[in-house]
Amino acid sequence: MSEKTIQFDQPQLKGTITVPGDKSISHRSVMFGSIAKGTTTVEGFLLGEDCLSTIDCFRKLGVKIDVNGTNVVIESPGMDGWAEPKEVLYTGNSGTTTRLMLGILGGTKLHTIMTGDASIGKRPMRRVADPLRLMGAQIAGRENGQYTPLAIQGTDLQAIDYTMPVASAQVKSAILLAGLRAQGTTIVRESEVSRDHTERMLRQFGAIIDVTDGVVSFEGGQQLTGTHVNVPGDISSAAFFLVAGAITKGSEIILKNVGVNETRAGIIEVLEKMGAAMRVGIENEQAAEPTATITISTSDLQATTIEGNIIPRLIDEIPILALLATQATGTTVIKDAEELKVKETDRITAVVTELKKLGANIEATDDGMIINGPTKLHGGALKSYGDHRIGMMAAVAALVTDDPVTLDDAACIAVSYPTFFEHLETLLQR
């Protein structure tokens, strides 16, 4: 635990930053580079704790991975050349690592055991384990595989045609990764499209895959080949500075190389709808992952409703959007966001509890929250719950409070944004 007191005297934010690499893409670059035969080079890798957990797991499987700053080189013999690990695979706080590794390991010939930290031990895993079991995967764990530790006995898998009960890129990705080793055509059907980094990366590593109207399908047995991956800046990390720029008086921030994959860019649509003073300059539109330079200035914000099929495209940004809504005129309603309850913490309860401590007019609902604004916020002692996004929300809130905000565990922010406070200091006009 690392308590931090955060206080600013009439702050203004001005300048240019480049946010760290996308966490989801960084995870997948190591996973796909390890599955593929040959050498994969990664540029812009996120050196956050979650992504380093993914690297550690594959090193224990015998994959050679060299890290030089944000450049990573992966040399792999392919899955058939992996070694059965002598140690438990420790995934730390990373739900992405834990859930996607289930899909990867299920089709090997290896016996592996995975566990994570206390937070991972509370997060539901059967949403992944159950469809993988339909493919023949042998997964055991607490409460029939609901919680870690999880033991996986690799075996031959059969393709399935699976309709997603909820929009979850982690569940979808685990099934698709298992499908690489499955006999037959793996099909995943989504009514609401979740982030598609796995589908894009399958193509990038040489797989033939069809994506049509929310249906993803491909033949098992395809061999991936090492390649080069450029990781764009993480829009979920950029979100905190987009909100900071919009709500802090006299501010103008330029964010460079932000990933704007359409399955992730819901926050841009919401900011535009709320009247944010923002410019989005699209670059590399035809790249595997498109990017943009985004400029955000102090904004006169209007309340809105956030619901329906946009929710999967901004689920990780809802904590900071809730803070944004406290500074907007009118009543903002967030709904259809039950998925927040099974993140690093129950983010509905956490966001409402902590923002109320600062004087926000906010109430929880079964599937989201209702926020009335604008409200003048005061200082207070906040909990992060060990959740990086709650921690960053608290830090940004301190920009609009007269009194200091004390955060119980600022170190948790390093999970996704190790340089967060450094970037905040860079932008502050003294």
Can you summarize the main beta sheet? 4 strands, mixed
Assigned CATH class of the largest domain: Alpha Beta
Gyration radius over CA: 21 Å
Give the CA-CA distance, first to last residue. 29 Å
Percent of residues in helical segments? 25-40%
The tally of structural domains comes to: 2
Q: Please give the number of β-strands.
A: 25
Structure description:
With 430 residues, this protein is of the alpha/beta class. The chain has 13 helices and 25 strands. The chain has helices spanning 23-35, 49-60, 95-106, 126-134, 142-145, 169-179, 197-204, 235-247, 266-273, 318-326, 347-357, 388-397, 420-427; strands at residues 4-6, 14-18, 37-43, 64-68, 71-77, 89-90, 111-115, 138-141, 147-153, 157-158, 161-163, 182-183, 185-189, 210-212, 215-219, 228-230, 252-259, 277-283, 291-297, 305-306, 330-334, 361-365, 368-373, 380-382, 405-407. It has a four-stranded mixed β-sheet. It has a four-stranded mixed β-sheet with strand order 4-5-3-16, with helices on one face. Strand 24, helix 12 and strand 25 form a beta-alpha-beta unit. Helix 1 (23-35) packs parallel to helix 2 (49-60), helix 3 (95-106) runs parallel beside helix 6 and helix 8 (235-247) packs parallel to helix 10 (318-326). The protein starts with a strand and ends with a helix. The mean pLDDT is 95.
Could you give the topology of this structure?
Elements: E1 4-6, E2 14-18, H1 23-35, E3 37-43, H2 49-60, E4 64-68, E5 71-77, E6 89-90, H3 95-106, E7 111-115, H4 126-134, E8 138-141, H5 142-145, E9 147-153, E10 157-158, E11 161-163, H6 169-179, E12 182-183, E13 185-189, H7 197-204, E14 210-212, E15 215-219, E16 228-230, H8 235-247, E17 252-259, H9 266-273, E18 277-283, E19 291-297, E20 305-306, H10 318-326, E21 330-334, H11 347-357, E22 361-365, E23 368-373, E24 380-382, H12 388-397, E25 405-407, H13 420-427
Parallel strand pairs: 2-17, 3-16, 6-7, 10-12, 11-13, 20-21, 24-25
Antiparallel strand pairs: 1-25, 3-5, 4-5, 7-9, 8-9, 13-15, 14-15, 17-19, 18-19, 21-23, 22-23
Helix pairs in contact: 1-2, 1-3, 1-7, 3-6, 4-6, 8-10, 8-12
